Amino acid sequence: MDLNPLRKDDIEIGKPLPWPVYDSKKNLLLKDGFVIETQSQLDTLLVSGLYRNPAWVKPAQTEKFGEKDEPSKIEIVSFASINLQVGDVLQMQISGENEQRYGVRLIGYVEKKSLLVTPPVQNESVILMRAGQGVVVRCFSGKNAYAFTSSVLRVSNTPYPYLHLTYPIEVRGMKVRKSTRVRAHVIGSVWREGDPSKKFPCIIDDISFSGAQVNCASPLGEIGDMLKLYLRISNQGSAVYVSPSVMIRRSSEVESAEGGKYSYGVEFHNLEQTESFALQVLVYQNLFELS
């Protein structure tokens, strides 16, 4: 395998790598799709030298866990038809800033006039907003995910801080099936249930409400065997660590330019309420990327 050296400008901060990255001894350092989040991380990696295989071609996507399901269709609906309730949590992303999403709550709305929401908060401090500032709002109601663009109509501080947002002209909605799979690419660890002394690093590539696709460099077991996953889920600036039990439903070994790897389709078993909620957050975060 011939390798070409990578330069600083070849890698974009915050975006998935389009190819695997190796060191000078042809050892795999980073899988394709891995995201380098900060400049300091990139600078540290570049010190020892980074390389890629110019002949590498991304393998064709294969079926993951579960049966293949039809893609969900995006529909245009009215805001009133969503039937959100006072106090429901919305995710707000401020246009022109990073991809950080803030949890805000719906205070109420006047149809075709404005929405009233609590302001975004970070580190227990209210984020200053200004009239005319654009936002993207995402929410979930029942089995559907919704997203719409809006802007700040007015900032009010009395008798408490809240925002008037422009009433959305249209809302884009998508039904979330239990089997709907999303790309997650979460780094975690996995071990055979009952044997936590032998943990293996893994990548959770795909995830749904019912299961996940786990890739690992080591064999983990046979179909029907129970495993434990350990992964970190970020939500609104905080982190939650979950360790769900899973059963192997599919097993395969894939040969690629990166070397052999083991892929497992696993099904979640006996999720606790906190684990179920955290995994739903992970699915929702990766499901509906409307801008």
What does this structure look like?
The structure is a single chain. Strands 6-7-8-13-12-11 form a six-stranded antiparallel barrel. Strand 7 and strand 8 form a beta hairpin. The protein is mainly β and 291 residues long.
Which terms would index this structure?
6-stranded antiparallel β-barrel, 6-stranded antiparallel barrel, mainly beta
Short characterization:
This protein has 291 residues and is mainly β. Helices cover 8% and strands 45% of the residues.
Q: Estimate the mean pLDDT confidence.
A: 80
Computed structural class = mainly beta
Unreliable residue stretches = 60-71, 256-260
- Separation of termini? 40 Å
Largest sheet: 6 strands, antiparallel, barrel
Question: Strands of the largest sheet, in order across it?
Answer: 6-7-8-13-12-11
Number of helices: 2
> Would you count the extended β strands for me?
21
* Strand content bin: over 45%
The coarse silhouette is globular
Report the order of strands and helices. EEEHEEEEEEEEEEEEEEEEEEH
Helix content: under 10%
Write the layout of secondary structure elements.
Elements: E1 4-5, E2 21-22, E3 28-30, H1 39-47, E4 51-52, E5 74-77, E6 89-94, E7 101-110, E8 114-117, E9 121-122, E10 125-126, E11 134-141, E12 144-156, E13 162-166, E14 171-175, E15 182-192, E16 200-207, E17 211-216, E18 226-235, E19 238-242, E20 245-256, E21 259-269, H2 273-287
Antiparallel strand pairs: 1-4, 2-3, 5-14, 6-7, 6-11, 7-8, 8-13, 9-10, 11-12, 12-13, 12-14, 15-16, 15-18, 16-17, 17-21, 18-19, 18-20, 20-21
